[in-house]
Amino acid sequence: MDILLINPASPRVDHITEHLGIASLKAYINSQGMKADTLDMAIENRTVGETVEYILSVNPLTVGVSMLDESRKNGFAVIKQLRERGYSGKIVVGGYFPTFASTEILRDFPEIDYVVRGEGEITLKELLQAVLGIEDRSLDQIEGLSYREKGEIRENPSRPLIGDLDILPPIDRKYARQVINSKQYLRIYGTRGCWGACSFCDIIGLYGSAKGKRWRRRSPEKLVNEMEELMSSYNTNYFIFNDDQFLIRGKNAFAVVDEFASELERRNLKIEFELMCRADTVSPKIMQRLKEVGLKRVFLGLESFDEKQLKRFNKKISVRQNIRALVTLHKLKIDVIASVILADAYTTFWDLLKQFAVLYIIRNRYFNSDFSKLSVNKKLEVYRGSAVYQEYKHKGLLTIDDYFTGCDYKLKFWTNFRLNMLTAEEELIRFLLRPGDVLAEIRQKFRLHMTTLRSKLA
C-alpha cells in the first residue's frame, strides 16, 4: 500500500457519516496508478491504540492523517505512537488544522515529515510520486507543500485551487454500506468552497489563501452520474449535500439550479435531498424549483438575529433577510435547520435575551415539522484561519492562543452566566425526556475512556 489515509475523529454516539476528504484523496490517488486506502476511526470505532496496531500490521509506505481542530489530539497521538513502535515510513498531515499551523507542526513534531496545505489531491499525488520515486521531482517544486530540508522548515507557494472539479473521480465509498445500514444518509458534494466573507469561518481562509475561484461547482452531468450510480449500488434515493455553500447569488443563480434540476428530470431520477446555503440565496423561485426535484430540508446559516452581531460577523445580511428566508421555506413546506451563534466577545446579556425571544418565535411559527430544528452554537468558536482570530488577537481579547490547544476568549459576565444556565437546563431536560439514552451515552463515553487509559498504561 502506497498510503493509508486516516480520519482520527472519535466515534459519535448519534450518527456516523463518511469523511469526504479522505474518500476523495483515496479515489484520486488510486486513479493515478498508486494504491491508497482509508481508515476512519470514527466509523470503525477504533481507539488510538487499535489504529496504531492496524497501521503496523498493513505497514503502508506512507501514512496520511487528515485533521480538524476537534480531531487533532487523536491524530497526533496516533502519529507519536506509530513512531514509538518503530514505524519508519513517511508521515504526512493535511486538512484545515494543519493548513493554518504547518510551521508550528513541523517545528514541534519531528515525527511528521510533510504538511499538505489547502486542497490536497494534486499536492498529495505529486508528493507520493516524488517520495516513491515514480517521477523525478524535487520537493521544492510541489506547490502547497511544507517540509524540512537540512533542518530548515520550507513553505512552498500555495497551490492554485482546482478550477475544474470534473477532473476528480467520484469519491471512494468504502464506508457507504455501514452508513446505509445505520439508517443514515450518504453525503455528496456538488460544489467546493464559499463565495462569502464571514469573519468567523476558516473555510474562507483555506480557499482564500490560494489563487483561483473560491467557489466552484461540478458539472450537472458528472454530479448526477454519481447520484445515479449510488442509487443503483446502495438502493438509496436520499442524499445530503456536504457543500459549504450550495447556491449562488445574482442573475445566474436560477440557471445554475435549473441545470441541475433539469438533468435529474431528464433521467427521471426520483430523489430527495438536503443542502446548505445562506439566507440571501433563498428565493421562492429557486426553492420551488429545487423542491420540484426533491429538496426536503435546508441547513440555513443564519448565524444571528442581532444586527450588530451580523455586522461583526461580516455576513452582509440583515435580520430581515434571515426572517424572509425562513418565511419562504415555511410557505413552501420545506424543513429547515436554522443555525445560529448566540454569543461572541461583545454580546451583552440583553443581546442574548433578544436572540432567545426571536428563536422562540421562529421555533413556534416557522417550523413545518419535527424535522425542522435549531442548530445552536452557544459561543463563537475562534479558528486560526479566520478573520475573527486576527481581530481578537490584535485587540488582545484572546485568553488562550495556542495552535495545539486552540483559542479562547472571555464572554461578558452575565452573558456567560446565562449560557451556563442554558447548558444545565438542556442537560436536565434531555435526562428527563430520555434517561435511558443519556445513561447509555455516559456508559459508552466511560468505556471509551477506560479503553484509552488501558492502552496508554500498556
UniProtKB/TrEMBL annotation:
Q: Domain Radical SAM core, which positions? A: 178-401
Q: Which UniProt keywords apply?
A: Iron, Iron-sulfur, Metal-binding, Methyltransferase, S-adenosyl-L-methionine, Transferase
Where does the source fall among the domains of life?
Bacteria
Q: Where is the B12-binding domain?
A: 3-138
- Keyword Iron-sulfur assigned to the entry: answer is yes
Name what cofactor the protein needs.
[4Fe-4S] cluster
Pfam families in the record, alphabetically?
B12-binding, Radical_SAM
Q: Which SMART domains match?
A: Elp3 (SM00729)
Q: Where are the transmembrane segments?
A: none
Q: Which GO terms describe its molecular function?
A: 4 iron, 4 sulfur cluster binding; catalytic activity; cobalamin binding; metal ion binding
Question: Per its UniProt record, what CDD domains does this chain match?
Answer: radical_SAM_B12_BD
Cellular component, GO annotation: cytosol
Name listed for the protein in its UniProt record: Radical SAM protein
Organism name: Caldithrix abyssi
